[in-house]
Amino acid sequence: QVQLVESGGGVVQAGGSLRLSCAASGSIASIKPMGWFRQAPGMERKLVATITSDGSKNFADTVKDRFTISRDNAKNTVYLQMNSLKPEDTAVYYCYAVLSTYYRSTYYQDYWGQGTRVTVSS
Q: Could you count the other beta carbons within 10 Å of the beta carbon of residue 53?
């Protein structure tokens, strides 16, 4: 089995910062992109940022000047540094990874974390 476990969510005032972490564990053979999506109440889940195994990054326009993404391949962990937070960043943040397992090392599929809530107060 594979698990993605997020941490770092919480409540912060507008203008503040939070750092989310997501560690993938289990019978992992290889991880391709990792990243973050978020879902605000009553809204669809949307991409926040992604990072490939070689470090290429992609950001949603709404966060590109405020958020950074990084990963530690040795730890199978991805991070999201969120600065200058706004009330509209309030959402549940989900980590995801495209990975293969030892059982089927050439077959890649999406895995998701359980989500961590971020609340930004005005």
A: 14
Average pLDDT in the 49-62 region? Answer: 97
| 3-state DSSP assignment of residue 73 | helix
Half-sphere exposure of 100 (CA within 13 A, CB side): 10
What is the phi/psi pair of residue 56, to 5°? -70, 135
For the chain, the average pLDDT equals 97
Instruction: Round to whole Å and give the CA distance between 15 and 64.
Output: 15
Taking the C-alpha atoms of residue 75 and residue 72, their distance in angstroms, rounded to an integer, is 5
Nearest to 17, CA basis, from 72, 70, 80, 94: 80
What's the pLDDT at 67?
A: 98
Distance of CA 25 to CAs 29, 35, 56, 61, Å? 10, 15, 22, 30
Please give the DSSP secondary-structure letter assigned to residue 92.
Answer: E
Cα gap 5→69, rounded to integer Å:
16
